[in-house]
Here is the input.
Amino acid sequence: GAGVSQSPSNKVTEKGKDVELRCDPISGHTALYWYRQRLGQGLEFLIYFQGNSAPDKSGLPSDRFSAERTGESVSTLTIQRTQQEDSAVYLCASSLVGTGGGGYTFGSGTRLTVV
Amino acid sequence: GENVEQHPSTLSVQEGDSAVIKCTYSDSASNYFPWYKQELGKGPQLIIDIRSNVGEKKDQRIAVTLNKTAKHFSLHITETQPEDSAVYFCAASKRQEKLTFGTGTRLTIIP
Here is the structure.
């Protein structure tokens, strides 16, 4: 596609429920990144995919968070048993090469609200 | 790992004046330094970047300078306009690693 697409754009869920966030990167971009942005804060790294593998998932906050990527394309970020502190905007980005040496293209994010 | 500090956290300037945002990084091996602009409700957008073999780069009203010895880099916006109002993030990385972002600067242009 023309850009990075994320869905849903907004998600309100009850505490304790599971949620799944989706990211469609730019076609041909081998690298894909998930970041979390709390209200008024900076970008917190969660996980990085190179192709379908995840060489760096050091930013996942707990075992409630997981992510996968299939077909070197779509990625899903799953949060199990959501907590109020999970409320944030979840941003996905992709880049042509698997390094930070090239600019990322970000999606518009999924705003997650846990009530 | 890399640590990036960004200052100031908020900045207000009169329309037409210049704005400067500064970042420092900790890992001397970092060699790529992009700047992103984030408007309300949108994802960050790359506006300019610089690599460690260059000291300065300019694109119209935007320029970035890099001091490798001091491990700091700055974003300069001249002749500011209302549409420059946004949150700006600096970042740093080295090859094969993820970007580490600064905490952001909320820039407000006063008409």
Summary: The longest strand of chain A covers residues 88-95. The CA atoms of residues 21 and 77 of chain A lie 5 Å apart. Chain A has a mean pLDDT of 91. The two ends of chain A are 33 Å apart (CA to CA).
